[in-house]
Amino acid sequence: MTKIVFEQWHQQAAFHNPLKGGELDHQDIQVRVDPLTGHQSIFNGALEDKVSILFPDTDHVYAAERASETLKTCFLCEGRWKQTTPRYPSDLIPDGRLVRGETVLFPNLFPLAARHAVVMVGNQHFRELSDFPPALLQDALSAAMDFIARCHAGDPEMAWFTINANYLPPAGASVVHPHLQVLGSPRPGTHHQLLIEASRDHHSKHGTCYWLDLVDTEWAEGARSIAAVGDSRWLTAFSPVGVNEVNAVWTHREHFLQWTEDDVKAMAEGLSGMLRAYHELGCSTFNFSCFSGALGASTPGFRCMLRLVSRQNLMPHHRTDDYYFQKLLRNEIIVRRPEVLAERFRKYLDRGM
Ligand SMILES: [Zn+2]
Q1: pTM greater than the 0.85 cutoff
Q2: Which residues surround ligand 1, an ion (CB under 5 A)?
Q3: Per-residue pLDDT tens for 100-131?
Q4: 295 C-alpha to center of ligand 1: Å?
Protein backbone atom coordinates (compact mmCIF):
# COMPACT_ATOMS: atom_id res chain seq x y z
CA MET A 1 0.00 0.00 0.00
CA THR A 2 1.08 3.56 -0.74
CA LYS A 3 -0.36 6.03 1.75
CA ILE A 4 -2.25 8.77 -0.09
CA VAL A 5 -1.25 12.31 0.85
CA PHE A 6 -4.10 14.82 0.89
CA GLU A 7 -2.60 18.19 0.01
CA GLN A 8 -4.22 21.38 1.18
CA TRP A 9 -3.06 24.94 1.54
CA HIS A 10 -4.55 28.21 2.73
CA GLN A 11 -4.84 31.78 1.52
CA GLN A 12 -6.37 34.81 3.22
CA ALA A 13 -8.72 37.50 1.96
CA ALA A 14 -9.00 40.81 3.85
CA PHE A 15 -11.67 43.50 3.43
CA HIS A 16 -13.85 45.87 5.45
CA ASN A 17 -17.02 43.90 5.96
CA PRO A 18 -20.38 45.71 6.12
CA LEU A 19 -21.85 42.58 7.73
CA LYS A 20 -19.44 43.18 10.63
CA GLY A 21 -19.99 46.91 11.03
CA GLY A 22 -17.27 47.79 8.54
CA GLU A 23 -14.51 46.11 10.54
CA LEU A 24 -11.51 44.64 8.77
CA ASP A 25 -12.44 41.00 8.19
CA HIS A 26 -9.89 38.26 7.47
CA GLN A 27 -11.32 35.18 5.79
CA ASP A 28 -9.37 31.96 5.49
CA ILE A 29 -9.73 30.05 2.24
CA GLN A 30 -8.69 26.43 2.24
CA VAL A 31 -7.63 24.94 -1.11
CA ARG A 32 -7.77 21.15 -1.45
CA VAL A 33 -6.01 19.27 -4.24
CA ASP A 34 -7.26 15.88 -5.41
CA PRO A 35 -4.38 13.40 -4.99
CA LEU A 36 -5.07 11.68 -8.32
CA THR A 37 -6.20 14.39 -10.73
CA GLY A 38 -4.96 17.63 -9.16
CA HIS A 39 -8.54 19.00 -9.19
CA GLN A 40 -8.86 21.92 -6.76
CA SER A 41 -11.78 22.76 -4.54
CA ILE A 42 -12.04 25.58 -2.05
CA PHE A 43 -13.63 25.88 1.34
CA ASN A 44 -14.40 29.22 2.99
CA GLY A 45 -15.68 28.71 6.54
CA ALA A 46 -17.62 31.99 6.29
CA LEU A 47 -20.00 30.17 3.92
CA GLU A 48 -20.49 27.16 6.14
CA ASP A 49 -23.69 28.32 7.80
CA LYS A 50 -24.89 30.15 4.69
CA VAL A 51 -25.49 27.18 2.40
CA SER A 52 -29.06 28.37 1.80
CA ILE A 53 -27.73 31.45 -0.04
CA LEU A 54 -26.10 29.23 -2.64
CA PHE A 55 -28.64 26.41 -2.47
CA PRO A 56 -32.11 27.67 -1.51
CA ASP A 57 -34.51 24.97 -0.31
CA THR A 58 -36.45 22.84 -2.74
CA ASP A 59 -39.84 24.40 -3.52
CA HIS A 60 -42.04 21.35 -2.98
CA VAL A 61 -45.22 23.08 -4.20
CA TYR A 62 -43.42 24.00 -7.43
CA ALA A 63 -42.03 20.44 -7.67
CA ALA A 64 -45.54 18.99 -7.39
CA GLU A 65 -46.78 21.45 -10.06
CA ARG A 66 -43.96 20.53 -12.45
CA ALA A 67 -44.57 16.82 -11.86
CA SER A 68 -48.28 17.20 -12.56
CA GLU A 69 -47.77 19.43 -15.63
CA THR A 70 -45.20 17.18 -17.28
CA LEU A 71 -47.04 13.95 -16.47
CA LYS A 72 -49.67 14.66 -19.12
CA THR A 73 -47.20 14.69 -21.98
CA CYS A 74 -44.61 12.22 -20.60
CA PHE A 75 -43.63 9.74 -23.33
CA LEU A 76 -42.76 7.10 -20.73
CA CYS A 77 -45.81 7.18 -18.45
CA GLU A 78 -48.89 4.93 -18.68
CA GLY A 79 -46.97 2.38 -20.74
CA ARG A 80 -46.55 4.92 -23.59
CA TRP A 81 -42.89 3.89 -23.85
CA LYS A 82 -44.09 0.81 -25.76
CA GLN A 83 -45.15 3.04 -28.67
CA THR A 84 -42.90 6.06 -28.31
CA THR A 85 -39.38 4.83 -27.60
CA PRO A 86 -36.88 3.69 -30.27
CA ARG A 87 -35.72 0.07 -30.48
CA TYR A 88 -32.28 -1.44 -31.07
CA PRO A 89 -31.67 -3.72 -34.06
CA SER A 90 -32.49 -7.34 -33.22
CA ASP A 91 -28.87 -8.50 -33.61
CA LEU A 92 -28.01 -6.36 -30.55
CA ILE A 93 -31.22 -6.87 -28.55
CA PRO A 94 -33.70 -9.43 -29.94
CA ASP A 95 -36.77 -7.63 -28.57
CA GLY A 96 -35.35 -4.17 -29.33
CA ARG A 97 -35.52 -3.11 -25.67
CA LEU A 98 -34.49 -4.69 -22.36
CA VAL A 99 -37.14 -4.93 -19.68
CA ARG A 100 -36.34 -5.68 -16.03
CA GLY A 101 -39.28 -5.41 -13.65
CA GLU A 102 -40.53 -1.82 -13.98
CA THR A 103 -37.41 -0.65 -15.82
CA VAL A 104 -36.91 -0.47 -19.59
CA LEU A 105 -33.73 0.17 -21.59
CA PHE A 106 -34.03 1.66 -25.08
CA PRO A 107 -31.86 3.78 -27.44
CA ASN A 108 -31.48 7.51 -26.92
CA LEU A 109 -33.15 9.23 -29.88
CA PHE A 110 -30.26 11.71 -30.12
CA PRO A 111 -27.18 9.67 -29.12
CA LEU A 112 -23.95 11.25 -27.88
CA ALA A 113 -21.94 8.09 -28.55
CA ALA A 114 -22.14 4.97 -30.71
CA ARG A 115 -23.96 3.26 -27.86
CA HIS A 116 -26.22 5.57 -25.87
CA ALA A 117 -29.10 3.95 -24.05
CA VAL A 118 -31.72 5.38 -21.72
CA VAL A 119 -33.13 3.32 -18.87
CA MET A 120 -36.56 4.28 -17.56
CA VAL A 121 -36.37 3.84 -13.79
CA GLY A 122 -39.86 2.66 -12.88
CA ASN A 123 -43.38 3.64 -13.90
CA GLN A 124 -43.66 6.50 -11.42
CA HIS A 125 -43.25 9.90 -13.10
CA PHE A 126 -41.74 11.84 -10.19
CA ARG A 127 -39.86 10.74 -7.09
CA GLU A 128 -38.44 12.46 -4.07
CA LEU A 129 -34.81 11.41 -3.49
CA SER A 130 -36.01 9.41 -0.48
CA ASP A 131 -38.00 7.20 -2.85
CA PHE A 132 -35.46 5.39 -5.04
CA PRO A 133 -35.73 1.85 -3.62
CA PRO A 134 -32.68 -0.45 -4.01
CA ALA A 135 -34.68 -3.14 -5.87
CA LEU A 136 -35.83 -0.62 -8.50
CA LEU A 137 -32.30 0.74 -9.01
CA GLN A 138 -30.95 -2.80 -9.16
CA ASP A 139 -33.33 -3.65 -12.01
CA ALA A 140 -32.29 -0.52 -13.92
CA LEU A 141 -28.57 -1.11 -13.36
CA SER A 142 -28.89 -4.78 -14.19
CA ALA A 143 -30.48 -3.86 -17.54
CA ALA A 144 -27.61 -1.41 -18.11
CA MET A 145 -25.02 -4.14 -17.43
CA ASP A 146 -26.83 -6.58 -19.74
CA PHE A 147 -26.78 -3.91 -22.48
CA ILE A 148 -23.08 -3.23 -21.95
CA ALA A 149 -22.21 -6.94 -22.20
CA ARG A 150 -24.26 -7.27 -25.40
CA CYS A 151 -22.59 -4.19 -26.95
CA HIS A 152 -19.12 -5.57 -26.24
CA ALA A 153 -19.99 -9.09 -27.42
CA GLY A 154 -21.31 -7.64 -30.68
CA ASP A 155 -18.34 -5.34 -31.20
CA PRO A 156 -15.21 -5.67 -29.00
CA GLU A 157 -14.15 -2.16 -30.10
CA MET A 158 -16.97 -0.89 -27.87
CA ALA A 159 -14.81 -0.95 -24.76
CA TRP A 160 -15.42 2.28 -22.87
CA PHE A 161 -18.64 2.59 -20.90
CA THR A 162 -20.11 4.80 -18.21
CA ILE A 163 -23.47 4.55 -16.44
CA ASN A 164 -24.88 7.99 -15.70
CA ALA A 165 -27.89 9.91 -14.43
CA ASN A 166 -29.37 13.39 -14.60
CA TYR A 167 -32.33 13.80 -12.28
CA LEU A 168 -34.62 16.79 -12.85
CA PRO A 169 -33.97 19.89 -15.00
CA PRO A 170 -31.49 21.65 -12.64
CA ALA A 171 -29.31 18.53 -13.10
CA GLY A 172 -29.64 18.67 -16.89
CA ALA A 173 -32.54 16.28 -17.41
CA SER A 174 -34.87 17.12 -20.28
CA VAL A 175 -37.59 14.84 -18.89
CA VAL A 176 -38.77 14.65 -15.28
CA HIS A 177 -39.40 10.88 -15.37
CA PRO A 178 -36.49 9.13 -13.56
CA HIS A 179 -33.99 7.57 -15.96
CA LEU A 180 -30.37 6.51 -16.35
CA GLN A 181 -28.11 6.92 -19.36
CA VAL A 182 -25.52 4.42 -20.54
CA LEU A 183 -22.74 5.68 -22.82
CA GLY A 184 -20.40 3.40 -24.78
CA SER A 185 -17.67 4.42 -27.19
CA PRO A 186 -14.47 3.04 -28.73
CA ARG A 187 -12.50 5.66 -26.74
CA PRO A 188 -12.95 7.09 -23.25
CA GLY A 189 -14.30 10.63 -22.77
CA THR A 190 -12.37 13.52 -21.20
CA HIS A 191 -12.70 12.80 -17.49
CA HIS A 192 -12.78 9.05 -18.03
CA GLN A 193 -9.43 9.23 -19.82
CA LEU A 194 -7.97 11.43 -17.08
CA LEU A 195 -8.95 8.86 -14.44
CA ILE A 196 -7.49 5.99 -16.46
CA GLU A 197 -4.22 7.79 -17.25
CA ALA A 198 -3.72 9.11 -13.73
CA SER A 199 -4.44 5.65 -12.27
CA ARG A 200 -1.91 4.15 -14.68
CA ASP A 201 0.69 6.79 -13.72
CA HIS A 202 0.18 6.08 -10.01
CA HIS A 203 0.59 2.36 -10.71
CA SER A 204 3.81 2.93 -12.71
CA LYS A 205 5.24 5.23 -10.06
CA HIS A 206 4.33 3.31 -6.90
CA GLY A 207 3.55 -0.22 -8.10
CA THR A 208 0.20 -0.06 -6.30
CA CYS A 209 -3.41 0.68 -7.23
CA TYR A 210 -4.46 4.27 -6.43
CA TRP A 211 -8.04 3.23 -5.64
CA LEU A 212 -7.00 0.54 -3.18
CA ASP A 213 -4.49 2.96 -1.67
CA LEU A 214 -7.25 5.56 -1.39
CA VAL A 215 -9.65 3.15 0.34
CA ASP A 216 -6.92 1.89 2.70
CA THR A 217 -5.82 5.42 3.58
CA GLU A 218 -9.37 6.71 4.06
CA TRP A 219 -10.37 3.71 6.19
CA ALA A 220 -7.22 4.06 8.32
CA GLU A 221 -7.93 7.76 8.89
CA GLY A 222 -11.72 7.41 9.01
CA ALA A 223 -12.87 11.00 8.48
CA ARG A 224 -14.39 10.51 5.02
CA SER A 225 -15.24 6.78 4.99
CA ILE A 226 -18.97 6.07 4.94
CA ALA A 227 -19.52 2.32 4.58
CA ALA A 228 -18.62 -0.92 2.83
CA VAL A 229 -21.48 -2.33 0.76
CA GLY A 230 -20.48 -5.71 -0.65
CA ASP A 231 -17.25 -5.17 -2.59
CA SER A 232 -17.88 -1.42 -2.87
CA ARG A 233 -16.52 1.22 -0.52
CA TRP A 234 -18.46 4.49 -0.13
CA LEU A 235 -16.77 7.70 0.97
CA THR A 236 -16.92 11.47 0.51
CA ALA A 237 -14.45 13.08 -1.89
CA PHE A 238 -11.53 14.99 -0.29
CA SER A 239 -11.55 17.55 -3.12
CA PRO A 240 -15.01 17.27 -4.69
CA VAL A 241 -15.82 18.04 -8.33
CA GLY A 242 -19.45 18.66 -7.41
CA VAL A 243 -21.71 19.53 -4.51
CA ASN A 244 -21.97 17.01 -1.65
CA GLU A 245 -19.89 14.55 -3.67
CA VAL A 246 -19.92 10.90 -2.66
CA ASN A 247 -17.61 8.34 -4.32
CA ALA A 248 -17.73 4.57 -4.45
CA VAL A 249 -14.94 2.18 -5.42
CA TRP A 250 -15.40 -1.48 -6.42
CA THR A 251 -12.17 -2.83 -5.00
CA HIS A 252 -12.01 -6.05 -7.07
CA ARG A 253 -13.48 -4.81 -10.35
CA GLU A 254 -11.49 -3.17 -13.14
CA HIS A 255 -14.35 -3.18 -15.63
CA PHE A 256 -18.08 -3.79 -15.88
CA LEU A 257 -17.85 -7.26 -17.48
CA GLN A 258 -16.37 -8.48 -14.17
CA TRP A 259 -19.41 -7.34 -12.19
CA THR A 260 -21.66 -9.90 -10.54
CA GLU A 261 -25.27 -9.29 -9.58
CA ASP A 262 -23.94 -8.66 -6.04
CA ASP A 263 -21.87 -5.74 -7.37
CA VAL A 264 -24.95 -4.31 -9.09
CA LYS A 265 -26.88 -4.76 -5.85
CA ALA A 266 -24.15 -2.92 -3.94
CA MET A 267 -24.41 0.01 -6.35
CA ALA A 268 -28.20 0.04 -6.01
CA GLU A 269 -28.10 -0.11 -2.20
CA GLY A 270 -25.38 2.51 -1.98
CA LEU A 271 -27.16 4.91 -4.35
CA SER A 272 -30.51 4.42 -2.64
CA GLY A 273 -28.99 5.17 0.78
CA MET A 274 -27.02 8.19 -0.41
CA LEU A 275 -30.07 9.64 -2.21
CA ARG A 276 -32.00 9.34 1.06
CA ALA A 277 -29.12 11.18 2.72
CA TYR A 278 -29.34 13.92 0.06
CA HIS A 279 -33.10 14.15 0.65
CA GLU A 280 -32.49 14.71 4.35
CA LEU A 281 -30.08 17.53 3.43
CA GLY A 282 -32.95 19.12 1.48
CA CYS A 283 -31.66 18.16 -1.99
CA SER A 284 -34.00 17.22 -4.82
CA THR A 285 -31.69 16.62 -7.81
CA PHE A 286 -28.52 14.69 -8.62
CA ASN A 287 -26.02 13.49 -11.22
CA PHE A 288 -23.92 10.38 -11.07
CA SER A 289 -21.39 8.72 -13.33
CA CYS A 290 -19.92 5.27 -12.80
CA PHE A 291 -16.68 4.63 -14.70
CA SER A 292 -15.29 1.32 -15.96
CA GLY A 293 -11.87 0.33 -17.24
CA ALA A 294 -11.72 -0.99 -20.82
CA LEU A 295 -14.10 -3.94 -21.15
CA GLY A 296 -12.37 -7.29 -21.37
CA ALA A 297 -8.90 -5.78 -20.89
CA SER A 298 -6.60 -4.98 -18.04
CA THR A 299 -6.33 -1.32 -17.07
CA PRO A 300 -3.42 -1.25 -14.63
CA GLY A 301 -4.14 0.51 -11.39
CA PHE A 302 -7.79 1.24 -12.15
CA ARG A 303 -10.95 0.16 -10.32
CA CYS A 304 -14.57 0.87 -11.21
CA MET A 305 -15.59 4.03 -9.40
CA LEU A 306 -18.64 6.24 -9.07
CA ARG A 307 -19.11 9.96 -8.53
CA LEU A 308 -22.46 11.12 -7.14
CA VAL A 309 -23.20 14.83 -6.70
CA SER A 310 -26.26 16.88 -5.85
CA ARG A 311 -27.21 19.86 -8.02
CA GLN A 312 -29.22 23.03 -7.61
CA ASN A 313 -32.56 22.35 -5.93
CA LEU A 314 -35.83 22.32 -7.83
CA MET A 315 -37.34 25.80 -7.57
CA PRO A 316 -38.60 28.42 -10.04
CA HIS A 317 -35.86 30.41 -11.78
CA HIS A 318 -33.10 28.52 -10.02
CA ARG A 319 -29.52 29.80 -10.22
CA THR A 320 -27.18 27.29 -11.83
CA ASP A 321 -24.55 25.81 -9.53
CA ASP A 322 -22.12 25.37 -12.44
CA TYR A 323 -20.69 28.70 -13.56
CA TYR A 324 -17.25 30.10 -14.50
CA PHE A 325 -15.62 28.77 -11.32
CA GLN A 326 -16.60 25.18 -12.16
CA LYS A 327 -17.23 25.15 -15.90
CA LEU A 328 -14.23 27.18 -17.09
CA LEU A 329 -11.77 27.38 -14.19
CA ARG A 330 -12.59 23.76 -13.34
CA ASN A 331 -12.65 24.27 -9.57
CA GLU A 332 -15.42 23.54 -7.11
CA ILE A 333 -16.73 25.15 -3.94
CA ILE A 334 -17.09 22.96 -0.88
CA VAL A 335 -20.41 24.02 0.61
CA ARG A 336 -20.36 21.33 3.29
CA ARG A 337 -17.09 19.82 4.43
CA PRO A 338 -16.65 16.22 3.20
CA GLU A 339 -15.78 15.13 6.76
CA VAL A 340 -19.07 16.55 8.08
CA LEU A 341 -21.00 14.91 5.24
CA ALA A 342 -19.43 11.49 5.87
CA GLU A 343 -20.42 11.72 9.52
CA ARG A 344 -24.01 12.58 8.56
CA PHE A 345 -24.25 9.98 5.78
CA ARG A 346 -23.02 6.86 7.62
CA LYS A 347 -26.39 6.01 9.12
CA TYR A 348 -27.99 5.79 5.65
CA LEU A 349 -25.82 2.81 4.71
CA ASP A 350 -26.18 1.16 8.09
CA ARG A 351 -27.90 -2.14 7.32
CA GLY A 352 -30.19 -1.52 10.29
CA MET A 353 -31.79 1.43 8.46
ZN1 LIG B 1 -43.46 9.99 -16.80
Answers
A1: yes
A2: 74, 76-77, 125, 177
A3: 999 999 999 999 999 999 999 999 999 999 99
A4: 33
